[in-house]
Amino acid sequence: MSRIALEIAANSLASALAAQDGGADRVELCENLGEGGCTPSYASIAMARERLRIPLYVLIRPRAGDFLYDALERERMRRDIELCVRLGCDGVVIGALDADGDVDRAACAELIAAAGALGVTFHRAIDAARDRARALEDAIALGCERVLSSGGAAGAPAGAAGIAALVRQAQGRIALMAGAGIGAGNVAALLAATGVNQVHASAKGMQRSRMRWRNAALVGLDPDWIASQREQVAALRQALDASAA
Question: Where are the alpha helices (H) located in the chain, listed in sequence order?
């Protein structure tokens, strides 16, 4: 079996560098992982581009919630993509649905046109679509290079059958990347069940604050935060390599 590509959803520059050091093949840079991920700041993108030697894809998602976007949000997404082009990113990660749960092909086509020569991944909006098989055909028709999916489930292990169905449907016309709830302990079984050759994970853990003083009364303002961990990335890379051996 050929090498399985590992993409890490990195919620900061530090997470992106940890992903690279741990053996990731590609970074999807974002922020607000707890809300499913949103577009990172200009500085985060620029500094990641300066420091990463592996491909850098940027999540283009203006907010949490659904994937139905109004005109202002679509303009913001387009401008963010234009920024990624200027900064020399390798690709962007997009997705948009209409109110009926179908792929908004017009909105997606506008974003893809803005991306120009950059690679394009269609994200887990496919899992929110009312008909994933139809959404996959739309992503193929739009010219996306890959689709990220959990098979319509909360996590890829639970949605393995759905991911496998998309792999069979795609017949090599587009790459399928499994994502959500993947770690070193379950990735081998997931690969066997789905047939994917790309996986997406955050490899995250708690980053402890160096603050010695903490005000316990500030409920909801925890000084600790979540970040990708080099050790978890490395363990996942090792599990993938063992599965491919």
Answer: 13-22, 42-51, 71-87, 105-115, 125-128, 132-142, 160-170, 187-194, 230-244
